[in-house]
Amino acid sequence: MRKLTIPLLATSFLLLISCASIPEKNLAPGKTTTVLNPYFADPGKDYVYRTKINVYGNELNGILIAKKINDSVHRVVLATDFGNTLLDMEIGQNSFRKNSIVDDLDRKIIVNTLRDDFRLMLRERFACSQAVLAGDRQMLYDVIGESNPLQISTSDSKLISISNGNARKRKVSIGFESENNIFADKITIQHYNIKLSIEMRQIAR
Amino acid sequence: MRKISFLLLFFIGMQVLAQDVMTASEVSAFKQSVNAASAKIKTMTTDFIQFKHMDFLAKDVETSGKMAFREPNSLAWQYKKPYNYSIIFKSGKILINDEGKKSQMDAKSNKTFSKINKLIVASVSGQMFDDKEFAISYFKSRDFNIARFIPKDASLKKYIRQVELSFDKKEGTVEQVRLLESETDYTKIVFKNKVLNAKVDDSAFSN
Predict the structure, then answer these.
(1) Is there a contact between B55 and B68 (Cβ–Cβ < 8 Å)?
(2) ipTM of the complex
(3) Superfamily of domain B21-66+122-205
(4) Which residues in chain A are closer than 8 Å to B100, comparing Cβ atoms?
(5) What is the pLDDT of residues B175-195, one digit of tens each?
(6) How near does any CA of chain B get to the CA of A61, in Å?
(7) Contact (CB, 8 A) for A176 and A160
(8) How far apart are CA B42 and CA A32, in angstroms?
(9) Closest residue of A to B60, CA-based?
């Protein structure tokens, strides 16, 4: 019996280790920290991405341009490969303005979804509590002061994802891949409750 | 402020000066030369650079590639930089190759693409003057003869406020296309290394 118990115990212990987060690097309870998103923060820069929007099996390709036009607002333009503007909007964390949109896209659900996705992608500051170590270099944070659960994760202090909804029921995840922590080379927006994903690859610096 | 408005006025003045309205006889001579030139065009290949200009941007968004045209209406529009994307219009079909991912659709099923096709073919071959969808006016600058097209159709007007074609004065072929979206924002396409009537293989129109 004893012979059996030891390996069993050992296995469960191993399992425990692999599942559990290591507590020592966590933020002390009650402490908060601010994580910054640098990827759209420079007002002197045009952020230009070749973009593929995949919605219920249909693909819409084009060029997405984002630029910070004042302290709190980004202008976001989606254009075709030929240069025609499909959508032009000004997005702040608490403000929104639709400058222009083509008829085919001018539906409330499309505009609101894109507005919310881009608003999350462009957001610069996240006040966080409760960080846990999610891997060797990855940290997972809960963002505070939100009406809905919001989490972000970092790798070597670089922002790598923003996720909406809780861990069991994700709504939207935005993943960033960045070599230099100044801009994101690749961004992926994935929806879990609707069939929508947006892939973006930076094409101009 | 005064200085700025003066400067603005100056530049607007320059623009007006730089583009004179053609007289009626100049217009008919110009149309004739373009029609004569386009009648001779059986094929055309050219490099192009596309600039998307929006006033709030620090720099124009620049993409470039190659274009091939063969009578009567085969057209290949191929972006090579900074990404690979080609769209081919051929016998009622639209073929797309998006960074290796190929797809195909019926030209009739996509009105916007059909309009783009019509516009590009008409632009490069200079067949736009008889188009009843546009109000056309004619100008001349130092380097170019310029035809300005304003869509009459309200739905097309939403996409394109105005199209401006700049023609080489001697050759009568299109050198630049400018699609205006607002007072300040436009897409400009500049053609370079144009080759007329060389043999263009079928492979240019397959993806």
Answers:
(1) no
(2) 0.81
(3) Lipoprotein localisation LolA/LolB/LppX (2.50.20.10)
(4) none
(5) 999 989 888 999 999 999 999
(6) 9
(7) yes
(8) 70
(9) A46
